Amino acid sequence: MSGDKTQGRSGAAAGEDFTPRRLYGRSKGKALRPGQARLIDELLPKLLLDLSAPAPHDARALFDSRVRETRLEIGFGGGEHLIATAARNPDVGFIGCEPFVNGMARLLARIAAEGLGNIRLRQGDAIEVVDWLPDASLARVYLFYPDPWPKRRHRKRRLVSPDNLAKLARVMTPGAQLRFATDIDDYAGWTLARLAASPDFDWRAQSAQDWLSPWDGWTQTKYEAKAMAAGRKPVYLTFARR
Ligand SMILES: C[S@@+](CC[C@H](N)C(=O)[O-])C[C@H]1O[C@@H](n2cnc3c(N)ncnc32)[C@H](O)[C@@H]1O
Q: Does the pLDDT value for residue 110 go beyond 50?
């Protein structure tokens, strides 16, 4: 199977999940290996959320009956954090969103290898999932190393925006955490300013030491490892839904 065909099926040709580069950065990358292509063809459809159907009244209904709460990871990249957190918390349902097909293929390989049953997926824009979910359905949201869009004229594409914060607030339960990490100082300041201006979130008072240390049980992502190897220092911010 050629890489081009594989990419086409996961992109524009598939119709449903094409994610324009101009909006979300990369949605295509290296050609998939045959095993990865098979996972995209066979396993992914079983785990994808069907946004054309009405959302359940209770997001836990997307998972089996053991699940006591639902969390969302936006832009899971290679899925390192999502896999480790889902494996540690079999009674939590995780929704992972990622437009980038190679990241999706890596995650699927880990889901298959570890036999995880508590992950549902969206190959595309996480905000479409947020718009679809019922009110107060998420107990936690993870947003790690979102694309920084460093050019001034591109900053409006950043995922942290007043509109997206209001959308997230609608689907988060009172007290639910929004966990955010970045290695870009400007994005940290941008995020603090927007969260401070939001009527829906409190910044959990953290000492400087706290925001330089990851959360307990943190699993380092590939992106973070590269950022640190390049000498950049991540910050880890926790906000609580009011
Ligand atoms: C810099 S990477 C970080 C990936 C991962 N969180 C990590 O720490 O390794 C940002 C990721 O967000 C994804 N992304 C960008 N816009 C998105 C959106 N609207 N919805 C979901 N994922 C998105 C990109 O495809 C990319 O994989």
A: yes
- How close is the Cα of 170 to the center of ligand 1, in Å? 22
Q: Is 221 annotated as a binding residue?
A: yes
The total domain count for the chain is 1
Q: How far is the CA of 226 from the centre of ligand 1 (A)?
A: 15
Domain that holds residue 164: 3-241
The CATH number covering residue 153 comes to 3.40.50.150
Residues with Cβ within 8 Å of residue 79, at least 6 apart in sequence: 96, 98, 103, 106, 107, 110
* ipTM of this predicted structure: 0.99
**Residue to probe by mutation, ligand 1, list 19, 48, 76, 123, most atoms within 8 Å of CB:** 76
Atom of ligand 1 nearest to the CA of 27: 25
187 lines ligand 1 (CB under 6 A): no
Give the residue from 174, 103, 191 showing the smallest Cα distance to 140. 174
Is 222 labelled a binding residue? yes
pLDDT tens-digit series, residues 169-226: 999 999 999 999 999 999 999 999 999 999 999 997 777 778 999 999 999 999 999 9
